[in-house]
Amino acid sequence: MAVTDAQNPLVGETTCGSLLKKLQEIWDEVGESDEERDKMLLQLEQECLDVYKRKVEQAAKSRAQLLQSLSDAKLELSGLQSALGEKSFAEIPENTSGTIKEQLAAIAPILKQLWEQKEERIKEFSDVQSQIQKICGEIAGSLSLGDQTGTPAVDESDLSLKKLDEYQSQLQELQKEKSDRLHKVLEFVSTVHDLCAVLGMDFFSTVTEVHPSLNDSTGVQSKSISNDTLARLAKTVLTLKEDKKQRLHKLQELASQLIDLWNLMDTPPEERRLFDHVTCNMSATVDEVTVPGALALDLIEQAEVEVERLDQLKASRMKEIAFKKQAELEEIFARAHIEIDPEAAREKIMALIDSGNIEPAELLADMDNQIAQAREEALSRKEILDKVEKWMSACEEESWLEDYNRDENRYNASRGAHLNLKRAEKARILVNKIPALVDTLVAKTRAWEEDHGMSFTYDGVPLLAMLEEYAMLRHEREEEKRRLRDQKKHQDQQHTEQEAIFGSRPSPARPVSVGNKKVIGPRTNGGANGTPSRRLSLNSHQNGTRSSKEGKRDNTRPAAPVNYVAISKDDAASHVSGSDPVPTSP
């Protein structure tokens, strides 16, 4: 110690050497023995050894703690690297030349950095898992509107980027599914809105009945996308579509009834236009009806009320409509000269309507069919009727011509005589065509009867019988003309013989004064439409008599002038037959 102290001159006054020197001075002064001195020095050395031992033990214990800390740090480093999956930090080798504290100092910043990364990674994992948990809750329907999910437990044993990517991939799939579900929900909501608009229903109450989050006040991302919500929305849409289909069917039925009743009662267009919103969807499909309120219940009820009103009105107007159609039918038959019993037909209509055994629509449809058949029959008779009209007109001209030929003053120069002369010339041409016209009529009538399997009647009289009667009367008239010509010829021959025997003498015929000239005017045409009175008048003329109707003369026409044209032999014969016979000489 002395050597050490001697070699260390810089040591202060209170060093071990100075203290030992001080102790020896005290011993010398006291006079301690050498044994006592050695004993005290030995004790002093032992106490020093104890102090060193304690320090060594403390140092060893500190070293052990440092080694444990180093071991723990290395283990923690290994665990963090394993958990984070980081490969950027090189592992520290066990055999190192650095001291324990140097090794701890080298590991400490790495641990700090890894801890910071771990905290950030845990936060990322927690965020991703929270979103996954929230979306899963929304899909499952366990998460109500406004609820917040709890912090999920993060597995700190695996915080690698690979695990984080797996969670993020799962989150992306769930977000896509959420987006698809949200899109589907919005489509359902839009469909419900359109259907409610068409049906006239309250959209807000309908959609919130499915889920409160589906109203317009909530954001898009806050709407429920659960399986239950989607199922209830789908069910609501199906229900509304079925209601729309049924209402459209009901409305179309009402529109059809309205149109039938309108047509039945000849409702004016201005009244029909009041229900254009009902009849406009008459032939529309379910998908084509998109106008708001087009299938509202009040609209359907309005149409039902109108149908009921028209049904009640129909009974009172049915007779009027039926009689109107009957009048139309009678007019068609009259123009076609088909004889019917209108009184019996009207009584039958009254009986059917009063009995209620037939629907008014069926009755009117049957009458429409009768009208259509009557028009077809009239059309098939038109050609024959036109020729009948020509034949009757020709017969009337023939009758007038006979009257004209009987007039002894027809050639006198009187006012209007030239008009009668021209008419007589045209009448002769027309009369000559009568036989051919009658033959054509007979052929066409027989062909018509063969095609239709029934007799062709004209105002209830068979036309062929009329034609045969006319032919017979015409034949009789020709025979009468021939007989009169023969009689006149015989009388002329007797008169010539008498003149040869007794000489000539004045004619016994009375002189005709100019003042007593008879003017022949044009004849009226009887029944202008070829009525039975016209046919009977025609037959009476053919028998040489005049009906009271055809006996009237139109005195407005002037008399014929003097005729300078020679008449035919037949006309002359007709004139002779119409006058008194020439008396024979005594």
Describe this structure in words.
The chain starts with a helix and ends in an 8-residue tail after the last helix. It is rod-shaped, with a radius of gyration of 69 Å. The chain is built from 17 helices and two strands. Helix 3 runs parallel beside helix 4 (100-140). It is mostly helical.
Low-confidence sequence ranges: 1-12, 507-586
Mean pLDDT: 77
- Biggest sheet, spatial arrangement of strands: 1-2
What portion of the residues fall into strands of 2 or more residues? Answer: under 5%
Q: Nearest-angstrom radius of gyration?
A: 69 Å
Number of domains: 3
Q: Main traits of this protein?
A:
586 residues, two-stranded antiparallel ribbon, 17 helices, 1% strand, disordered N terminus, disordered C terminus
Topology at a glance:
Layout: H1 2-7, H2 16-30, H3 34-84, H4 100-140, H5 161-199, H6 203-210, H7 227-265, H8 269-272, H9 276-279, H10 297-335, H11 342-355, H12 360-406, H13 417-432, H14 434-452, E1 457-458, E2 461-462, H15 463-502, H16 532-542, H17 569-578
Antiparallel strand pairs: 1-2
At a glance:
With 586 residues, the chain is mostly helical. The protein is 69% helix and 1% strand.
